[in-house]
Amino acid sequence: MSEIFEPKNIVVTGGCGFIGSNFVHYVVNNHPEVHVTVLDKLTYAGNPENIAGLPSDRVELVVGDICDADLLDRLVPGHDAIVHYAAESHNDNSIADPEPFLRTNVEGTFRLLEAVRKYGIRYHHVSTDEVYGDLPLDDPAKFTEETPYHPSSPYSSTKASSDMLVRAWTRTYGLRTTISNCSNNYGPYQHVEKFIPRQITNIIDGVRPKLYGKGENVRDWIHTEDHSSAVWDILTKGQMGETYLIGANGERNNITVLRMILEAMGRDPEDFDWVADRPGHDRRYAIDSSKLQRELGWKPSHTDFSEGLKETIDWYVANEAWWRPAKEATEARYRAQGQ
Ligand code: NAD
Ligand code: DAU
Q1: How many domains does the chain contain in total?
Q2: CA atoms within 13 A on the CB side of 180
Q3: Tell me: the pLDDT tens digits for 31-51?
Q4: Which GO biological process categories is it annotated with (predicted)?
Q5: Is 300 in the pocket of ligand 1 (CB under 6 A)?
Q6: I need a surface site. Which of 10, 17, 85, 176 has the fewest CB within 10 A?
Q7: In what order do the strands lie in the sheet with 9-13?
Q8: Domain residue limits at 176
Q9: Contact, 252 vs 305, CB < 8 A?
Q10: Does residue 228's CB lie within 6 angstroms of at least one atom of ligand 1?
Q11: Is the Cβ atom of 178 under 6 angstroms away from ligand 2?
């Protein structure tokens, strides 16, 4: 194991989004010595409410674009690490309009790497298992760090491109970087465009949930707090230049998850609509996280998916004021796509 890195001042990009804001909460709750500067453009997916209420001497929000090199020149000096979450993150949006994905996910990562090169600080790159493409439904194989890249969607191809930039900048310029590729997250503060929150909030609204295709596609669910603890371990204990896969053995097909939500919310498990499939829809994701567990000693703590799902449902029931403003526009977009 390499030396322990003890950051004091970190930049978290995308810290007003779903996973980034959960990471900020995680750091504030578990690492009192660390100050966090959140850099977030506050796109439709960013909400300052996600980090409201955290102590102002621990967390500062800077509203800005990761593509803005001048802003990075002002912001980065004085920090010892960047943890990069900011992205356009939704596959369906990338199919409808890929351009913002190229800009934020590829150019944005390039700008951050250039700032890291200039100021010599540590960089952790948050990526996705989707860079590996998909797995067959009827084969127990899982993704490992050695699986070749084979992205399918505009979103995942831009994330794969950003990973490649990190690898090239690390080798050529000797940057101190790590990459993590995580599976599907669930938990509080996830935008209502995503599968689990969309179905929970539809049910609250008396609207039938929407299932793509045959509902056979498998996702490997992990609670977002477990993603945060894994990123922290990689940031502080990871080997420079290495990639770590993050997952919690949470494989389930979509129809199973949807029926679990319906039942937990007291509805008939068949009370949903079949809708048009996503073009190029990845069949199955599955993560082998043994390298992370073996080398850094990480373990997930949310191992009961059904319990985590119930807590997530309760969170959306209790926080309607948080998700309500985004709901109508999101559903209008889906209607226009036949979904
Ligand atoms: P999200 O869409 O909820 O949040 C993205 C955040 O980035 C928002 O706050 C948004 O305002 C900000 N942002 C977007 N463009 C920006 C820009 N140009 N400059 C500054 N800020 C900008 O995304 P998420 O689901 O929280 O995902 C966060 C990261 O984790 C992404 O890199 C994603 O690829 C990765 N990831 C997500 C999952 C998942 O299940 N959601 C799984 C694995 C990896
Ligand atoms: O695997 C990690 C990825 O997980 C992240 O990189 C992405 O940022 C994140 O959005 C997520 O991607 P998915 O495309 O897997 O997530 P989404 O929530 O969009 O969909 C999950 C599954 O549910 C997928 O098979 C499509 C299906 N689906 C989705 C919606 C919104 C439905 O059946 N109905 C729906 O209404």
Answers
A1: 1
A2: 28
A3: 999 999 999 999 999 999 999
A4: nucleotide-sugar metabolic process
A5: no
A6: 176
A7: 59-63, 35-40, 9-13, 81-84, 122-128, 177-182, 243-246
A8: 9-191+223-249+284-302
A9: yes
A10: no
A11: no
Question: Is the residue at 316 inside a domain?
Answer: no
Residue 40 lies in a domain: yes
Nearest to 72 by CA among 106, 118, 19, 34: 118
List the catalytic residues: 129-130, 155
Helix (H) or strand (E) holding 177: strand 177-182
For ligand 2, atom 10, the nearest C-alpha belongs to 90
User: Which pLDDT tens digit goes with each residue over 101-148?
Assistant: 999 999 999 999 999 999 999 999 999 999 999 999 988 999 999 999
**Does pTM top 0.85 for this prediction?**
yes
- Asked if residue 40 lies in contact with residue 23, where contact means CB atoms within 8 angstroms, the answer is no
What is the distance in A from the centroid of ligand 2 to the CA of 177?
A: 28
Distances (CA, A) of 227 to 209, 223, 235, 296, 335: 27, 7, 12, 14, 32
CA-22 nearest atom, ligand 1: 26
> What tokens were used for 211?
């299932």
Pocket lining: 217 vs ligand 2, CB cutoff 6 Å: yes
Q: Which of 183, 184, 257, 289 to mutate to test the pocket of ligand 2 (most atoms within 8 A of CB)?
A: 184
β-pairing, 251-253 with 218-220? antiparallel
Q: Strands 35-40, 59-63: parallel, antiparallel or unpaired by DSSP?
A: parallel
Contact 125/180 with Cβ under 8 angstroms?
yes
Nearest CA to ligand 2 atom 11: 184
